[in-house]
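Q: Could you fold this chain for me?
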Amino acid sequence: MKKRALVICPGRGTYNATELGYLKTHHAAREDVIAAVDAVRGEMGQLTVSQLDGADKYTPSVHMTGDNASALIYACAMADFAAIDREEFDIVAVTGNSMGWYLALACAGIVDLAGGARLVNNMGGIMHQHGAGGQIVWSICDDNWNIQKDKLLFINNLMHESSSISEVSIYISIRLGGMIVFAADEAGLKWLMERLPKDDRFPLRLMHHAAFHSLLLNHIVPMARSDNPLSDFGVGEIPAIDGQGRIWSPRAFNRDAIYAYTLGGQLTDSYDFTRAVQVAAAEFAPDTVIVLGPGTTLGAPIVQALIASGWRGLSGKADFQARQQDEPILISMGMAEQRAWALS
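A: Sure. Below is the predicted structure, expressed as C-alpha cells.
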C-alpha cells in the first residue's frame, strides 16, 4: 500500500554555499525540468540556473540575490518533486513556506512547469529591484521544540508597543514553527534588534530579504499583477494549502480568487506557515512529510508546528527523534542520507 505524503516546498534562503551543484549532482537526468527554467531565464537575458548551479564557486552577491536564488530554488525543488517515487507515495497535498507557495502552485498543477518558472522568476526580479525593508528571525521555542508561552506574550506586547511609535513600521511576516519572522523598515529593524532578547544566534537579520508578507510591499502588488497573467493559472491536480491555512482543492476554486491571493494578500499579509502545516496534517492525514530541496532549514519548523498541534501525540524534539528512527515522519530531500527514501 502506498504511503500518504504531504509535500512541502522550501522558501528563499535555502540555496546556500553547501547546495552549489545540487542540480548537477542530483538531477543530471532531469533535463526537462532544468531546460524549462533555463528557457525562461534565457529569454530574459539572465544567467541560466544551469550556469548558476554549475559555477566553480558560490558567490553570495550572485547566488543569494532574489532574481537568481528564486529560480535556483524553483529548479531544484521541482526536480526533486519529479523524482519522488509515485509507486511508493501518494501525494495527498502540497504546501510551502513563503516563496514556497509559488512552488506549491506548480507542484499542485495550478500553474504548469513553465508558468511556475515565469512566476518565480518575475517575482524574484521584482523583489530584487523594488523590495523594501527586511526580515529578522527570532526563536520562540525551547530546546525540546515546544513553543514558549512567555515569548508569545512578549511578542504580543512588543507589537503593541511598536504600533504606537510612528517612526517604525513592524509586522509579523511569517509564523514559522518555533520561530517568528518579523518584517520591518530600516528603523524598525534597528528597533527590533535592540529590543529582542539575545538567545544563541537569535535575533538574526536575514540578508538579501525584503519585508516580505507585510504592508511595506503594497507597491509590489500592481507590478506583480502586470507581469503575471491570470491565464497562467489553472484548475489544479493536487490540493494546495496557502499561507492562511486555506485549502485550494482541484477544480473546486475560483481562478480569480487564487490569483488575487497569490499576487495580493500573499504579498502583503502575514504568512502563517505553522497553520498551513497543521491544517495539511489534520485534513489529509499523511503518513510521511516530504520536504523538497534544496537546503535543510525547513525540517525543524515543520516538526515544531506538528508538536504545537499535538499531531499523533507528538510531544517534543526527543519524541520526534525517537519516532524518526523507527519509521520516518519527515523525509528531507536536501539531506543526502534521507533523499534516497523518497526516490524511485
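A (continued): The longest strand covers residues 89-96.
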